[in-house]
Structure formats: C-alpha cells, structure tokens
Amino acid sequence: MGTPLADVARMALRHETLVAWQRADDMFLTIHRVSRQFPIQERFELGSQLRRAAYSVVANIVEGVNQRSSRETQHFLHIAEASLAEVNYCIHAAHRLGYVNEAQRHDLHEQLRMVGAPLVGLIRSKREGTNE
Fold first, then answer.
1. Do residues 24 and 58 lie in contact, with contact meaning Cβ atoms separated by under 8 Å?
2. By three-state DSSP, how is residue 54 classified?
3. How far is it, in rounded angstroms, from Cα 10 to Cα 39?
4. Could you count the other beta carbons within 10 Å of the beta carbon of residue 85?
C-alpha cells in the first residue's frame, strides 16, 4: 500500500502518456518562445494572452484526465478545446499585426491541428465511455 503522496505522484503522470498532452506541451513551449519575440508592449498584452491560452490547453488536459467523474473530465477537456480556439485567434491577430511571419503562422497552425485532432478524439472517447 502506497503513501498518499506516492498515489498523487502516480496520478499526476497519467496525462504524460496522452498524445494530446504531449503535443499541447510542445505547442506551449513553441508559443512561449515565439511570443517572447513580440514588441515589448505586446509581450504583456497579446503575447501574455497567447501564452496563457496555450498554457490553459495543457493544464486543462492534465486536470481533466485526473478527475474522478467522466462529466468533470469532459468539462476540463472542453475548456482545453476552447482554449485551443483562443490560441488560434491570438495567432491570427499576431500575424495580422506583423508579429508572426507567414512561416511561423503556418507552423503554429500545424501544431494547433496536431493538438486538436487527438484532443477531439480524447473528448469523444470520454463521451462514449460515459453513461451519465
């Protein structure tokens, strides 16, 4: 029988096996680096919002898969999906403002797609496994 702390440590690692989390984690790191190159006034406005939205995707996947009920899991995964849409808009705005060039925009949109597909699959799998 493990200690409560050991049980928490084992639970916290569950998300690391998920493709959606792995890709969201990579996307967050990329966005963090890119947004640090924004003009100084935008690092604390649009850049900050972009980083928070990208962080929210990753964090809500972690929270979701560590919930006890399927309904709560779905709730957090839907928040992650909504945050992904927010990231998409922030990238769009940054591109239109000239803070992200076309190649960066393309790469970031590819990462969004690579996160979105397994995230939607995870949401579907949790929904289909629910009788609530």
1. yes
2. helix
3. 41
4. 13
* Exposure class string for 45-64: b at 16+ Cβ within 10 A, else e: ebbebbbebbbbbbbbbbbb
Q: Return the closest-CA partner of residue 59 out of 47, 45, 77, 46.
A: 77
The pTM score is 0.85
Identify which of 106, 12, 97, 120 has the alpha carbon closest to the alpha carbon of residue 49. Answer: 97
What is the separation, in whole angstroms, between the first and last Cα of the chain? 31
What's the per-residue H, E or C state across 76-101? HHHHHHHHHHHHHHHHHHHHHCCCCC
Per-residue pLDDT of the chain (132 residues; tens, 9 = 90+): 455 555 555 554 578 889 999 999 999 999 999 999 999 988 889 999 999 999 999 999 999 998 888 899 999 999 999 999 999 999 999 999 999 999 999 999 999 999 999 999 999 988 776 544
Structure-block tokens of residue 9: 């440590």
H helices then E strands: how many in the chain? 6, 0
